[in-house]
Amino acid sequence: MSTTTTAVPEKLWSGGKSPFKVEYGKLMMWYFLMSDAFTFGAFLIAYGTTRFATNGWPNPNEVFKSYPFASENANAPLVFVSIMTFILIISSVTMVLAVQAGQQMKKNAVVINLILTIIGGAAFLSCQAWEWNHLFHEGAWWGRNPFLNADGTASTTNFTNFFFTITGFHGFHVFSGVIINIIMLIMTLTDTFEKRGHYLMIEKAGLYWHFVDLVWVFVFTCFYLI
Amino acid sequence: MEHTAVAEHHEGGKKEVIRVTIILTVLTIIELALGFAMMGMENQRLRLAIKGAIVILMLSKAFYIVGYFMHLKHEVKNLIMTIVVPLFIFFWFIFSFLYDGNSFKNLKNTYDPYKKELSTTKAEKKEEAKEIKTDEKKKAVD
To answer: Engineering a disulfide at A146: which of A56, A190, A206, B129 sits with its beta carbon 3.0 to 4.6 angstroms away?
Structure first.
């Protein structure tokens, strides 16, 4: 039985069956995500190139040191962003559980895990909205950079431009992911997948959601850590 | 045949998710610990080494997310190849673009004394920042 995946892979190309052994929609989702990876990769490499071409750069630990309900001169670098990171990782885990429940045709488990995933996504978006708002009131926006370089010299607006563009693009992905998950939830509740006999749609939504988490791993490292 | 493959997978499915979650959490905590350790560190070489370690941790996190959460590790080899091989272009992409950026910086520093001077004199932008801030507050009040 399991020989199909291991023993004779060359037969996959002999025609008559899918050489990828996934359905059309899932394969296309993979290709879409690959192209999206190139988009994000291009953004991040543009950021890296600009950083390599600049003498000074603001210290992220000075820029991102606040958190909600903190006092004016709070100094807690990395704390808030690590909470955001964990929120996204956990929402990715609940999405995996939703996908697995879907494979086992357990409708209730799918619903619960999808709701948890949606809550996680909404929580992440709220955190990001707070952070953008906070930075905006510090005077940072596209074309405006109130922060100095780490060595005390004047900084360019490249820092804020790249930050808002890339985290904004990622945030938009999170937003559309939440919308997709809400649609999946409605479809599950209306028994669309039960009638169809499979929950493959959840798997595709899951792929997208994990990709959003994956991109955050890179964005988080490039902007907050390095 | 497909059904047995799926059923086989269910046995260890939940355990695998828990295992990968723990791995991802631990890797993130190590990343954060390195980030905290790097704060205020003067030794530039050590900083660079820590940054390299963080990048390696980042890539291993990406491997676990794509491999296990996105299930790519359990797909057919053909599918893995069609997704992963095109991404190898990033090796060239990262190397050459960062090299180019660095070279551009060196050229500017050598041939553009104004720029060089600008980027080595201490600025007093804090005042201006505060002005913008108060401006914003005024706008908000208005």
So the answer is: B129
Q: What is the 3-state secondary structure (H, E, C) of B43-56?
A: CHHHHHHHHHHHHH
Burial class (CB in 10 A: 0-12, 13-18, 19+), A120: buried
Give CA–CA dist B109/B15, Å, rounded: 55
Tokens, residue A80: 């808030």
From B31, B69, B109, residue closest to A96, measured CB to CB: B69
**Residue contact B133–A139, C-beta within 8 A:** yes
Nearest CA in chain B to A215: B62
What are the chain A neighbours of B84 within 8 Å (beta carbons)?
A: none
Task: Give the domains, in start order, of chain A with CATH numbers.
Answer: 24-225 (1.20.120.80)
| Best A12, A52, A64, A85 residue to mutate vs chain B (most B CBs within 10 Å) | A52
What is the ipTM, given to two decimal places? Answer: 0.88
Reported as a single tens digit per residue, the pLDDT across A92-132 is 999 999 999 999 999 999 999 999 999 999 999 999 999 99
